[in-house]
Write a structure and sequence with these properties.
Radius of gyration: 26 Å
Oligomer: single chain
Number of helices: 17
């Protein structure tokens, strides 16, 4: 695996830390800026929505630009967004900095994934994407807890400064180690790139990604109250369990990247089935502390095991437009990340309790499996060889069978016989 792919993973580590670290910083942010905690929570939603909208827009806007130059520009804008957040005097400025950072993050994911795929052979696409996604897994294990630690000890602005510094390191690595990707022989045209959206396999992949992500985040977004209010754990256990989820994510990403290139649909369907089983187990056993902790780890393994396969599948069905493929994948994941917590909140508001979010998540992942099975059937039917047609006889009829000779031989029109394959094998 080229070193430059690991540089992209380092960049994703900075992006992922910024995206998720606010979940542990909402109380001090709200207190410092004079807003309520729900208003501070909108900063998380703003980032997710910015990712959904920004990924396709940035992909189209940068379609004809050199990819390394685009990566340099996007990580620079993202880093400046972190500096603006650290210096934000008001809630409105912080909100605007989150939107700008989300747009740059979305564009980087889209272009970075296309660059990672372009730097390796086709048979190593899932592994390259797994390495890149691994940066997000490490962000969940190290970056997000470190951001919460910095926020608690030095103030929430210190977490933004730290991500800005990580972005500067990533920028240096991109400039020095990521090679210039050769331009295609034919200049990319927007009309041709947009043609991928006429393929039903692309839409099946979008639906599978969005439903799979929504299913997991429908329950994961409310993991803290599940652990404290349902399983009866102390608040101090929440960071530890989140770190366990992140450790499971690293293991799952490694497993998915290892096997997805050779068994893409197998990893895809088996991983989402594992998601479903873990979520159902959460709904049934979540009131037991030991089970809740173990299932949190297993959910990280199962969830991130499918990520390389989901990404690689989109690049396979949208090979004619790799940048838009990366953008579409990013938008689909974040669509699920936005819809899942909303559905989980609706379930809780309806009075079904925190464990019901796991049931709702399992229903979504089951729907994702159904779409993946449909995609697999279409994939197999498209690859199935078609045998030659039998010659037509008089009046357009197929070759008619003549009378049978001895031992199952067929008599032809000239009195000769043809061996019956079944009898010949006998």
């Amino acid at each position: 695996m080229p070193l430059s792919v690991y540089i992209l993973a380092l960049s994703v580590f900075a992006l992922g830390t910024s995206e998720f670290m606010l979940s542990g910083l909402l109380p001090p942010v709200a207190e410092d800026l004079g807003v309520t905690i729900p208003q501070a929570g909108l900063l998380i939603s703003a980032f997710a929505i910015g990712m959904v909208v920004g990924a396709p827009l940035l992909a189209v806007a940068t379609l004809r630009l050199p990819r390394r130059t685009t990566l340099v520009a996007l990580i620079s804008v993202f880093g400046l967004g972190q500096v603006a957040g650290a210096l934000a005097p008001t809630y409105a400025v912080l909100f605007a900095s989150r939107v700008v950072s989300a747009l740059a993050c979305a564009g980087f994911w889209a272009v970075g994934a296309a660059v990672a795929v372009a730097m390796v052979p086709e048979t190593s696409r899932a592994r390259a994407l797994a390495v890149m996604i691994g940066g997000l897994s490490v962000a969940n294990v190290l970056g997000v807890p470190a951001g919460a630690f910095l926020g608690e000890g030095l103030g929430w602005r210190a977490a933004f400064w730290a991500v800005g510094a990580a972005s500067a390191v990533a920028l240096t690595g991109i400039v020095t180690l990521v090679p210039a990707i050769p331009r295609p022989a034919e200049r990319p045209r927007l009309g041709r790139e947009m043609g991928i959206y006429r393929d039903r396999q692309v839409w099946l992949s979008i639906g599978t990604i969005a439903l799979a992500a929504a299913g997991v985040f429908c329950a994961f977004s409310y993991l803290a109250p599940l652990l404290t209010d349902v399983a009866g754990l102390d608040d101090g256990w929440v960071p530890t369990v989140l770190a366990l989820f992140g450790a499971g994510a690293i293991i799952g990403t490694a497993l998915g990247g290892r096997f997805a290139d050779a068994h893409l649909f197998g990893v895809l369907i088996a991983g989402m089935a594992a998601d479903t089983v873990v979520l159902v187990a959460f709904a049934l056993l979540g009131r037991y502390a030991v089970a809740a902790v173990l299932l949190s780890f297993l959910l990280g393994v199962a969830c991130f095991c499918t990520a390389p396969a989901l990404n690689a599948r989109m690049f396979n069905v949208a090979a004619a437009a790799p940048t838009l493929a990366g953008a579409t994948t990013t938008a689909a994941f974040n669509l699920g990340n936005t819809a899942g917590p909303w559905l989980g909140g609706a379930v809780i508001d309806a009075g079904f309790g925190y464990r019901a979010t796991a049931w709702a998540g399992a229903a979504l992942t089951t729907s994702a499996i159904a779409l993946a099975v449909v995609s697999l059937r279409l994939h197999r039917s498209a690859r199935a060889p078609r045998g030659p047609r039998a010659p037509r006889g008089p009046r357009g009829q197929r070759g008619q069978r003549g009378p049978r000779g001895p031992r199952g031989q067929r008599v032809t029109g000239r009195g000769h016989t043809e061996a019956n394959p079944v009898c010949s094998k006998a």
